[in-house]
Automatic annotation (TrEMBL):
It comes from Torulaspora delbrueckii (Yeast). The chain crosses the membrane at residues 65-82, 94-113, 125-146, 158-175, 286-304, 380-399. Belongs to the polyprenol kinase family. The gene is TDEL0B06490. This is dolichol kinase. The lineage of its organism: Eukaryota, Fungi, Dikarya, Ascomycota, Saccharomycotina. It is found in: Endoplasmic reticulum membrane. One of its GO terms (biological process) is dolichyl monophosphate biosynthetic process. InterPro entries: Polypren_kinase. One of its GO terms (molecular function) is dolichol kinase activity. It comes from the Eukaryota. GO terms for cellular component: endoplasmic reticulum membrane. It is a multi-pass membrane protein.
Length: 507
């Protein structure tokens, strides 16, 4: 018996060594780095980084500090990856995903162009992706903040250390909820940084930010309470009754918490919102148009779902949001921002009910949303597409009053997917995306951006030629990348738009 067990162990060990040898022989780090699609992505990101460095580095010390912090973060991540790669016996499986480059690029460029005052703490949050024991990682992030050249006082730096803990907890919860399938490590890190900024780092007095922050806080609190309740009730209630109790807790607790946390001008938020809408004919008309459109289109799309492709039915929502936000944002931007901020948390609430299939509505919501789920949504327990869509469209509008999310997702991504899927023949190397789809993206976004500039008053500080460059770079990046378009494309297009404006923000 002992000999047999030993033989099995030896056979298994030999097989693992053989498989590792095959991986090592088949894998070439150089070949991976010079893969055509990766070269294109790195070239586009490198061009924008070069433009930012050339135009901004010498402007003032604040910009130089951001660049230095970004360089330290990039070097730290690369050194950590190299150390793991070497200590594993050059096993390529331990290397970080290529998409980690976006985890460094997107937050860094957003901070550089729009939020330099919080650059140091956010750069430290990026370091959460470094693979090392927690007892070393969190102190490393803290040391990065405390020893930075930031002008912040020591008390402010100490207060910022709380963001590191919140960011780690957010990442852990997202990873657990998604099983690192619906969301991978890059997604979880990006969203944890975003959540930490909204909940802890930023403190804007704008109404739409307060709506987003406090409703999101209320949502997370009631989710936490229900998580504990789920554990306690699991042994004393059947599944249906427990589900109904948790649903009731959410339905009552969430709005109650919102009314407790969110005070606008000292008023109850519901009373303030009613008064805010009723005192403006424009807001009343916009609300009626939005509600009517949803009541008419949602049933019709569900009815016609069987007669159109999955891809086309999904893109209907992209076109719909484009139509429902583009002009209203010009009419009453603050109302649209408040609506978008509330919609983000509303979408999260819908997904929460669907995720747990809470009775009596969770199962029904799940059956309807599954009709529009694609391969990304099927990878794990979370349906991410519609949440990514609202975040991708809302973020540029909330950060910089920019419609690039509407244009890139409502027009470019939609037409690229439809035209590429139906008529595309020539594929970009290493992807399932076609050159015909990329041409459709570039052409449609360029034309739409020009119309927005000429007739709707957007893009006032950027020339027509620079707009076309922004759309071209975004289209090429979209065609050669595999990271989720609904997040990456609007974020990159916002960065490119700001870089190519005739007047960069320098204050």
């Amino acid at each position: 018996m002992t000999v047999g067990t030993s033989s099995v162990a030896e056979t298994k060990g030999e097989r693992e060594v053989s498989e590792k040898s095959q991986i090592d022989e088949a894998y070439s780090l150089l070949d991976a780095l010079v893969a055509p699609e990766r070269v294109v992505q790195l070239a586009i990101l490198g061009v924008t980084l070069h433009i930012a460095f050339t135009e901004l580095y010498d402007l003032n010390s604040e910009y130089r500090l951001v660049f230095r912090n970004g360089a330290i973060v990039a070097i730290s991540i690369l050194m950590g990856a190299y150390s793991r790669y070497r200590s594993s016996g050059w096993n390529p499986l331990v290397l970080p995903k290529f998409e980690t480059v976006y985890l460094m690029y997107l937050p860094f460029m957003t901070l550089l162009l729009f939020d330099r005052s919080h650059a140091t703490i956010n750069c430290s949050l990026i370091l959460n992706c470094v693979e090392m024991p927690l007892m070393f990682k969190l102190p490393m992030q803290g040391i990065f903040v405390l020893l930075s050249e930031s002008k912040a006082e020591l008390n402010d730096k100490l207060a910022q250390l709380g963001a590191i803990i919140i960011n780690y907890l957010a990442y852990t919860l997202l990873a657990k909820a998604s099983h690192l399938k619906s969301l991978d490590t890059v997604d979880c890190n990006l969203f944890s940084i975003l959540l930490t900024n909204v909940l802890y780092i930023h403190d804007s007095e704008s109404i739409y930010f307060q709506v987003l922050k406090e409703t999101l806080s209320a949502f997370l609190i009631i989710v936490g309470v229900n998580y504990v309740a789920d554990i306690l009730l699991g042994s004393i209630m059947n599944a249906y009754l427990k589900s109904a109790v948790i649903f009731s807790s959410f339905a009552v607790g969430f709005p109650t918490l919102v009314r407790h946390l969110l005070k606008i001008d000292g008023q109850d938020p519901l009373e303030w919102l009613i008064d805010y809408i009723m005192t403006s004919d424009t807001r009343q008309n916009l609300l009626i148009i939005w509600l009517t459109s949803l009541l008419v289109l949602i049933p019709n799309v569900l009815i016609l779902k069987s007669n159109i492709t999955l891809n086309s039915s999904r893109k209907v929502w992209h076109f719909l949001i484009l139509l429902l936000i583009t002009k209203p944002f010009q009419m009453d931007p603050n109302f649209v921002k408040i609506s978008l901020a509330g919609s983000i948390v509303l979408f999260l609430s819908v997904e929460y009910l669907r995720y747990l299939k809470l009775e009596p509505v969770g199962g029904y919501i799940d059956s309807k949303l599954r009709l529009f789920a694609d391969f990304r949504d099927e990878k794990g327990p979370i349906i991410i597409s519609y949440i990514y869509l609202i975040v991708g469209i809302a973020t540029p509008l909330l950060i910089n009053d920019s419609p690039v999310g509407l244009i890139s997702l409502g027009v470019g991504d939609s037409l690229a997917s439809i035209i590429g899927g139906k008529w595309g023949k020539k594929f970009w190397a290493g992807t399932n995306k076609t050159m015909e789809g990329t041409i459709a993206f570039i052409g449609s976004t360029t034309v739409t951006a020009i119309i927005f500039k000429q007739y709707l008053g957007y893009f006032q500080n950027i020339s027509y030629s620079n707009l076309s460059v922004v759309c071209t770079l975004t289209g090429l990046l979209e065609g050669n990348s595999i990271i989720n378009d609904n997040i990456m494309i609007p974020a990159f297009m916002l960065i490119a738009e700001q870089l190519f404006t005739n007047r960069l923000i320098t204050t």
